[in-house]
Design goal:
single chain, mainly alpha, 0% strand, globular
Length: 141
């Protein structure tokens, strides 16, 4: 892969993944109470933990998105984003295994529920994109 192709692919991945984080974080920031309910539906945390996650995670997503889009601290932002996706996949898989009827709460608050399987399948390409971004950034060094 040529350097210019690598650079274009890196920018495209940064903007797409960063935009996803910005959108998801913004939706959750706009309605933290509903997001706290979505977090509680996973039945993994005590009530305090649900509200703590609901008030902090969206801001981490927003910051991660901003860093990805701008290219600042790219490796750190990509690693944090990847960690968030991996933790979410673990939580979502746990909910599926336990038979919980949940809405992931990722991209909209309230409204009709989507299947947890859809959320899981949607996140796998995003994880692959983050891994590719890490690899492309690592080759640049």
């Amino acid at each position: 892969m040529t350097d210019s192709t690598r650079k274009r692919l890196t920018v495209a991945l940064r903007v797409v993944l960063g935009g996803i984080f910005l959108y998801a974080g913004g939706m959750k920031i706009a309605d933290p109470v509903t997001f706290a309910g979505n977090v509680a539906a996973y039945k993994l945390l005590p009530t305090f933990g649900n509200y703590l996650v609901a008030t902090t995670l969206p801001w981490v997503e927003l910051l991660c998105g901003l860093l990805l889009v701008t290219g600042c601290r790219l490796r750190a932002a990509t690693l944090i984003g990847l960690l968030m996706y991996l933790l979410f996949v673990v939580a979502l898989t746990s909910a599926i295994v336990r038979g919980l009827d949940i809405d992931c709460g990722c991209f909209r608050q309230g409204g009709p529920k989507s299947s947890p399987w859809v959320a899981l399948l949607r996140d796998l390409p995003l994880i692959a994109g983050m891994l590719l971004l890490l690899r492309l950034d690592g080759r640049r060094r």
